[in-house]
Amino acid sequence: MIPEINFVQLVLFAIPAFAANAAPLFAGGRTPIDFGKTTGSGNRVLGDGKTIRGFFVGVVAGTLAAAIIAYALGSCFLPQFSFNEKVCLGFLLSFGTMTGDAVGSFVKRRMGIKQGSRVTFLDWLPFIIFALLFGAAMWVPNWPEIIILIALTYLLHRGSNLVAHQMGWKKVPW
Question: pTM score, two decimals?
Answer without folding.
Answer: 0.92
